[in-house]
Amino acid sequence: MRKSRMSEVQRQAVAEVEEVYRELEELGLARNCVGRTRCCRFRLTGRTPMLTAGEALVAARGVRAAGRKTLPESGTAAAASEGTCPLLGQDGRCSIYLQRPFGCRTHFCEAAGGNYPRSVVRRLIHRLEEVAERLGDSDVRALESAVSRVLQER
Ligand code: SF4
After folding, report:
1. Which atom of ligand 1 is nearest to the CA of 49?
2. Atom of ligand 1 nearest to the CA of 100
3. Which ranges in the chain belong to alpha helices (H)?
4. Which of 37, 44, 96, 101 has minimal Cβ neighbours within 10 Å of its Cβ?
5. pLDDT computed for residue 115 by the predictor
């Protein structure tokens, strides 16, 4: 069966989420990420990025742009035991860096500067929630299930 194409509402949602990411970058908040990738190993940190529906659409586009139709399998036993994000490439870099979710941009890593101030990101989070409402899906989902769900739908 032929999979459905992205609807106009979904296209607008993608554009709005990308705009939110752009605005976050333009805030120019100090970051010192040295690529330790600990924040991409969810069992080590005890935290998993939670995605709104629009963020999941954008992340899934990143997966497709990388030439994949599904999420990569979770590699080695060590990776599985650390809860390594399936989007962390073997080169130690995020395979969807430009489309990575909001939580991956505002992560809590102390070495990189800790959480962004809540007051700074609250307005942007609210916009992501509004986009999700327009998509008719206000649930937030853990990264893997959020992205898999979009990839399976389309
Ligand atoms: S999406 Fe990218 S930045 Fe976010 S946890 Fe996965 S690999 Fe890390």
Report:
1. 5
2. 1
3. 8-26, 42-45, 53-65, 77-82, 102-105, 118-134, 143-153
4. 44
5. 75
User: Tokens 């990776």 label which residue?
Assistant: 79
What is the Cα–Cα distance from 82 to 76, expressed in whole angstroms? Answer: 10
CA–CA distance, 145 with 127 (Å, rounded to integer): 22
Ligand 1 pocket check for 105: Cβ under 6 Å: no
Q: Cβ(94) to ligand 1 under 6 A?
A: yes
CA distance 127 to 133: 10
Helix axis angle for 53-65 and 143-153, nearest 10°, is 70
10 pLDDT exceeds 70? yes
Exposure letters 12-33 (e unless 16+ CB within 10 A, then b)? ebbebbeebbeebeeeeeeeee
Could you state, in order of their start, the residue ranges of all structural domains in the chain?
A: 8-153
pLDDT of residue 98: 94
DSSP string across 94-134: BTTGGG--HHHHS---GGGT-SPPHHHHHHHHHHHHHHHHH
pLDDT tens, residue by residue, 14-55: 999 999 999 998 887 777 777 778 889 999 889 999 999 999
